[in-house]
Amino acid sequence: MNFMEFFWILQVLIGIGLLVSAIVAIRFKNLIMAVIAMAVFSLILSLEFYVLQAPDVAIAEAGVGAGLTTAMYLLAIKNTTDEEVIE
Amino acid sequence: MTTTIIKTTTKILAPLILVFGSYIILHGHLTPGGGFQGGAVFASGLALLIVANKYDAVKSLFEKAPLSVFESIGALGFLGMACLGFAGYTFFKNIIANSGFPLFGGKTPTGINPGYLNTGGTLPYMNIFVGIKVLAGLTSIVLVFFLIMRRERDEW
């Protein structure tokens, strides 16, 4: 397996992972599980940035997307309720 | 949220994350990353510490930590380092590089080299100031989210 085949296989896998984690984040009724799915989405997106040779953006995405926004969402959910309310 | 799993994980992971954030800030002119990325990593480590500790401990600790002062120091220090370029040159002129100043003023080697920390002139100073500003701002956001919590019981 040469480099380009590995590159394209990785691209397809990352695309499928992004799609699945995004759909899961929308579909889950439990908000904590949805937030964890968003953290997974952010982590896979940072892997994609790293593969596309932008390690700066990858570090920023991993730090802000997977670390800080997850902590903020979890604290906000802890202050309210963790079930989706449909009026 | 202060269960045994989170406490133990935080004890092991938080020092590593803080050291990694400091490394990214300090080596901003040599390796990928810089002030903003290192500050975000450092702030996520502090957010882990905030989430894993009790309400009273966090409140008593961050009453003594001057986060707004840190943010002002970051902005004013960045502008001050930029204004150093007015010494005969223009705004943002890098006057410390290759000047022999003992801190970050070493001579930059040409060609392929492993990367020497004592080079770069004003860039490491600017990275440090931006890192201080970013970590103070992001930490204060998480801290406000934590401190306005009304329910203090540990439910999950």
Automatic annotation (TrEMBL), chain A:
Organism of origin is: Thermococcus barophilus (strain DSM 11836 / MP)
| Top-rank lineage group of the source organism | Archaea
InterPro entries, per the entry: MrpA_C/MbhD
Domain MrpA C-terminal/MbhD residue range list: 17-80
What are the record's GO terms for cellular component? plasma membrane
Instruction: Return the protein name.
Output: MrpA C-terminal/MbhD domain-containing protein
> Main localization of the protein?
membrane
- Where in this chain does the entry annotate a coiled-coil region? none
Q: Where in the cell is it found?
A: Cell membrane
Give the UniProt keywords, A-Z.
Cell membrane, Membrane, Transmembrane, Transmembrane helix
Please list every transmembrane segment annotated in the UniProt record, as residue ranges: 6-26, 31-51, 57-77
How does the UniProt record describe the way this protein sits in the membrane?
Answer: Multi-pass membrane protein
